[in-house]
Amino acid sequence: MTNFTVGPVQMDEETRRIGSEQIPYFRTQEFSALMRENEALLRALFDAPADSRAIFLTGSGTAGMEGGVMNFFTHDDKVLVVNGGSFGHRFAELCAIHEIPFTEIKLEFGKPLTKEILSQYENLGYTGMLVQLCETSSGILYDMNIVGDFCERNGIFLFVDAVSGFLADRLSMKEMHINAAVTGSQKALALPPGMSFTVLDGTAVSRCEKTRPRSLYFDYQMCLKDGERGQTPFTPAVGTLIQLNARLRGIEKSGGISAMNRAAKERADYFRRRIAHLPLRMFVAPENASNCVTALCPARPDVGAHRIFEILKDEYGIWVCPNAGEYADKVFRVGHIGHITQEETDKLIAAFEDLARRGIL
Ligand SMILES: *Cc1c(COP(=O)(O)O)cnc(C)c1O
Whole-model pTM above 0.85? Predict the structure, then answer.
């Protein structure tokens, strides 16, 4: 199978080779040194300030979202949640569960967050904001410069879910006034699923010292303390952290974050250019589309998006990403993250062309 989903994605050969090895014991100097290097490399890739720290949580991206909500906010906060799709909705659910007062900014699915929309929330006493970098359900990339300026002006603590956008789209904690950002192992890092990585600036670290989450596993203060000696409170996904180390070193060696962003853009642009002649419409305006994924609608109303997903899987050996709920039959997505070659992208385009020839598309 060729995998064009948004995660788990295809892993490179080195990641798979490490995955085939025995898992070492981890309460050692050697593993601590590897973890300290992981932290330094991640902080650099998030373009985080000098006093920033990283948290390595064994739990998928959602665990990182939940841990952030629990450790950065209390009942005394007043949080803005950008809800433009299923991941924005998840932040709202997390605030409700943890009884963090919040207001949702509900966006039309696939539509951008504009200055005009945000201007309605100026000077209203909000203390926190939760937003995706890329809302993966529609593939929209939010303008983090607009969001960051708004938060800075209003003294708002900004926590960004960059689970899918990290490495594919531009992210700078320093320039975008981001206090904390989270990513996951199975998206553009192209590791096995099951871990989330959060980078915290000094403000986020001091928030963790004040909040008292009613949880042992999600106690970030404890994670930060153990992290000082390159350890985690509980047994982490040790193998994934070793794969992370190799991956982060590889990224640094091949030009760092700007080279990663550039390659992601080239890959997304190539795909979008090459399907322009097909009866498929980009769901998000190209200028607002993330480099990590392209959401597509069949141009003909009688063609179901879910059927395209099924046929590609069963007859062509290709996974694209179906949508859920209301959009299940209107939209499907093609991911551009992970170890995908141009030949594989060409194979997907040829499959679309074949579907058009067969009258299915
Ligand atoms: C994938 C993803 C997550 C995390 O999902 P998990 O299934 O918990 O790993 C969170 N936010 C966004 C934007 C994502 O794309």
Answer: yes
Gap from CA of 61 to ligand 1 centroid (Å): 5
- The number of C-alpha atoms within 13 Å of 164 and in the hemisphere containing its C-beta is 29
87 alpha carbon – ligand 1 mean position (Å): 7
Q: How far is CA 303 from the centre of its chain?
A: 30
Dump pLDDT digits (tens) for 198-245.
Answer: 999 999 999 999 999 999 999 999 999 999 999 999 999 999 999 999
CA dihedral 10, 292, 109, 349 (to 10 degrees): -70
Q: CB under 6 Å to ligand 1: residues? A: 7, 60-62, 65, 87, 132, 136, 161, 163-164, 184, 187
Cα of 6 to ligand 1 centre, how many Å?
Answer: 9
Give the Cα separation of 144 and 146 in Å (integer). 5
Tokens of 239: 């193998």
Pocket test for ligand 1, best of 138, 164, 171, 197 (most atoms within 8 A of CB): 164
Beta-carbon contacts of residue 40 (< 8 Å; ≥ 6 apart) = none
